[in-house]
Specification:
CATH class of the largest domain: Alpha Beta
Number of domains: 2
Distance between the termini: 50 Å
Number of helices: 9
Shape: globular
CATH architecture of the largest domain: 3-Layer(aba) Sandwich
Strand order of the largest sheet: 12-14-13-15-16-21-20-19-17-18
Helix content: 10-25%
CATH topology of the largest domain: Rossmann fold
Structural class: alpha/beta
CATH superfamily of the largest domain: Class I glutamine amidotransferase (GATase) domain
Number of strands: 21
Length: 371
């Protein structure tokens, strides 16, 4: 068992939201010289998996508030990164563990923050902050060691994510391949769009066949030239509407090859099919969201991370397949005119429950049927 006690100097810090709300804590991680960090403040309800959350590219531009009080108690593991680094703007925790204990741990959470120059606040009343966000909605904020006046000015100046293309800040520069995990000749070939793809998604897809991950701006012609059996649309950050190049590519791919989308990929497919999207007050971020499969009434507990949602009411050619039981928002749909379906949540669930693993099997069936 690996056990380590961390000692750190206490430096006071504050979080100031754009509406003027102030929260006190202590500085952790690494701050810029100004002593100010900014971003859109959201909350995540997972009780474990903080490393996977922090390294999820879907959080680009956001400051993650963990509602679970004890964060860092099992350290971090090099093998558990979900991307090549961190893309969020910072983290907020109630209690950053001074001691971690885990036989797999290769370091502590403070070391991860230092490695990626990621700032944060500990000792903050995350219960109060979460309640405020639930009432007032996710909003820009500034946090750090600067004075309150400077933090308030920075919070007000920080733009919201609406209307911004955040995908270009996280997508890969070049395509890369992940071979079939089953060994031998791959039964299928899959092209996966990287809108902010997580490592466990490529591992899950590699159970189905050879996977080639391509940048978000890859054209439909380029994808079809690779002769895939299926196309996967990954998760990713921010507002889907500004990612017009991806929507155009998906329109050209519809009917040509089976498509499976999740999270941002679900929203982009929906826009390509003629639906619309809108921003939720505080989004869905956590590993315990109940979703009903409309075909059979089964309930699955899902892992989610998104601020935007789909409205497909009255749109021809779209069938609703999944519904969120908390707020009755759209959680899944399929095209009735092309081999394409999508869900709003993360079936690879890293972190989270494995109730939705069946969707990868559904994708395999769709590809095999199209052949």
């Amino acid at each position: 068992m690996t056990e380590h006690t961390e000692r750190r100097e206490i430096v006071e810090a504050k979080l100031v939201l754009a509406d003027g709300s102030v929260f006190a804590g202590e500085a952790i991680g690494v701050y810029p010289e100004s002593g100010i960090a900014t971003g859109e403040v959201v909350f995540n309800t997972v009780m474990a998996g903080y490393q996977e959350v922090i390294t999820d590219p879907s959080y680009a531009g956001q400051v993650i508030t963990f509602t679970y009080p004890h964060i860092g108690n099992y350290g971090v593991v090099d093998l558990d990164y979900e991307s090549r680094g961190t893309f969020c703007r910072g983290v907020i925790v109630r209690d950053l563990a001074r001691r971690h204990s885990n036989w797999r741990a290769t370091n502590d959470l403070s070391s991860l923050l230092a490695k990626h120059n990621l700032p944060g606040i500990a000792g903050l009343d995350t219960r109060r902050l979460t309640r405020h966000i639930r009432d007032a909605g996710a909003m820009p904020g500034a946090f750090g060691t600067a004075d309150e006046v400077a933090l308030k000015a920075a919070a007000v100046a920080e733009p919201e994510t609406t209307g911004l293309d955040m995908v270009q800040t996280v997508t890969c520069a070049d395509s890369y391949k992940t071979p079939f995990a089953g060994g031998g000749t791959a039964p299928r070939s899959i092209v996966a769009y990287d809108f902010g793809i997580k490592a466990n998604i490529t591992r899950s897809l590699a159970q189905l066949g050879d996977v080639e991950v391509v940048p978000a701006s890859t054209s439909a012609n380029d994808v079809l030239a690779r002769k895939p059996d299926g196309v996967f649309l990954s998760n990713g950050p921010g507002d889907p509407e500004p990612v017009a190049y991806a929507i155009a590519a998906i329109k050209d791919l519809l009917g040509e090859v089976p498509i499976f989308g999740i999270c941002l990929g679900h929203q982009l497919l929906s826009l390509a099919l003629g639906a619309s999207t809108y921003k939720l007050p505080f989004g869905h971020h956590g590993g315990n969201h109940p979703v009903r499969q409309l075909a059979n009434g089964k309930i699955e507990i899902t892992s989610q991370n998104h601020n935007y949602c789909v409205d497909c009411a009255g749109v021809q050619g779209i069938e609703l397949t999944h519904l969120n039981l908390n707020d009755e928002t759209v959680e899944g749909l399929r095209s009735t005119e092309a081999p394409a379906f999508s869900v709003q949540y993360h079936p690879e669930a890293s972190p989270g429950p494995h109730d939705s693993n069946y969707l990868f099997g559904s994708f395999a069936d769709l590809m095999d049927g199209h052949k």
